[in-house]
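Run log, item B.
One chain of 728 residues. Sequence copied directly from the ordering sheet:
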Amino acid sequence: MKKIIYRIFISLILIVLSSIIFLSTIGLKTERFNDLITSKITKVDPNLSLNINYVSVKLNLFSLVIDLKTLGSDLIYKNRIIELENIKSQISLLSIIKNQFALSEIMISTKSIPLKNLISLIRAMKNDPKLLFAEQLIENGYIIADLKFEFNELGNIKKNFKIKGLVNDGQLFFSKNKITRLNFIFQITDQEFNFKDVNFFINNKSLSIPELKAKKQKSEYVFIGKLNNKNLSFKKNEINEFIDNKFINTNLNNIIFNSNSEFTFNIDKKFKIKDLNIESTINIEKLEMNNFLGKNSFFPKIKKDIVFKKQKIKLSYDENKLDIIGSGILFLQDNLDNINYEIICNKDNYLFNINLKINDNPFVIDTINFEKSIKNNFDVKIKGNLKKDTLRFDQIILSESENIFSIKDLILSSDYKIEEIRNIKLSYKDKKKKKNQLELKKNKKNYLIVGDSFNADKLFTDLLKSKKVNKKNFFNRDFKLKVDIKKVFLDENNIIKNLNGTMSFIDNKIADLNLESEFSNQENIKFTIKNESNEKVTTLYSYKAKPFVDRYKFIKGFEEGDLNFYSTKKNGITNSTLKIDNFKVQEIPILAKLLTLASLQGIADLLTGEGIRFTDFEMKFSNKDKLMTIDEIYAIGPAISILMEGYIQRDKLISLRGTLVPATTINRTISSIPLIGNILVGKKVGEGVFGVSFKIKGPPGDLETTVNPIKTLTPRFITRTLEKIKKN
């Protein structure tokens, strides 16, 4: 009997062991657990159902659980079928013994399924607004995923779920941007999202995110990631799709660049991005912009497009501060220049520090007649800040060898008018090789210009030849300017010394001016402007007229003479008188033509010799807008005398008429006048009057001259001649 019992016991043990070994290794297939697994899936969401053919059962002695596995199952959510590779679950043996909820976990492995369907499934299991947002963004794409959910004793899903897998050929659409060919590996838990090897195209541009992590902190998610791209190229229309900035959209034409970036940011419950931080290294191969500087006199060969090349940039950004440090090659003109820059944006305050090195390109400051040598490098350093509506230049330094231009504390308003300027220093040699040394200093609310020397030749010529009145306002306030310059070059041969005086500016106009200087002892020059009772009075006296007359190239060989100018302006009309006494002129083309046509060859010959001397020249004229009305031009000299009147429409028409006669004829004519002739010129026998009347008319550059001999001088001509002779 004992042997039978022993054999039965041994047999039972062998059967149990064999069963355990069989269940642990091979397992068995059964439908017994189908209802259990299906009920738990349905418990998650009533819209979820599961088609199971059979369940494979294995025993795990080490964990004291029963492993359940299904093959070829389908998960159905609202008529959407999700094909599953398998479903794995575990039943705790201890839970069965304690009569508790037995199903401890479910692991679902999907086949390649539509990404949108999986997001819908996850939303069903965990109703999170972020998943709804993601579901709306996704258009296409496939995913293979492993989902693991654990259950507590009550049958509820624990928060330690885990989802991992990969996405292939995803497609998302948000705002104006479309993401295609999205591929990445992911792992998701309740507290953390991990994405690796994220590659995608945004608007057909390839980008790569090697690593992206999102970790839950309280009610927000903190994202940490890296972004890389190579040879990324954007044309003008593509730039407009990404950036909504008027200046960039208008001027930026194309860009090619590489970048490596690290970034962090938070997303709150309302999907608002917060605390964005970016650290980037950017290599710009080429950036091409429209020439937003326009025709710039500083860069005479400036191109239609401005091109940046080989730019290496370090960028650091957070919500309070943006730092950009960069350097590279710049093409403004024919040859390359080098540029270094640092820009710091701290809320509404922009700090900038720019260094431009101009190499084999020209740089011109036309107003002061300066041009850099092509062979030399020219450094432009600009440091300042932009805060709200105020642009401040702490320092602007332009330097080339011994030529230095320095500006300190220049403050501009929002409309680029000068609010303040503390100091300007100029020390340079101009195109004429003249040494210039000037300094502007602020003196309380006013300014002082002092210096050893200044070549005003170019500035002087530009002022005299200017056809347009510059109505642009440069200053935002009124001030007084005091001048004290030891030596000023008016031209190559004329120098004035000790230029002193003051100028007062009101509403950007000269309200009062008083400048005095001297050529030498008792050879002075004086210039004044006064405004009284809405009338502007301008006077200029110069012991030497030549520096002023020589500016007009159609007059050649002008010598000697002094100049006196008087002008009044009221209600937009200017009335002026110009007088030049005791001078001679070698050639005036129009006058030479008149003399030749009048067959006054003897006088004409003088124009190629020593010149014609005049004792008096007087011009009375008025200006209104573009019309100059010449009331009278009268000149008298030993050889000839001229009386002329007419008008000039600027850039359109010249119309002049007058009388020209030899001075000997005048003397004969005047001597024939009873009593007056005897008093003025003595007794002389006249043989008849001979001279010419003339007309000059036509557009500038194409004037037509007509001449008629005359026998009788006009009373006006005789009257003016008598006045001049009597005066002399």
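Observations after the first pass:
- Confidence is low (pLDDT under 50) at residues 599-606, 667-689.
- The first strand starts at residue 28 and ends at 30.
Flagged for discussion on Thursday.
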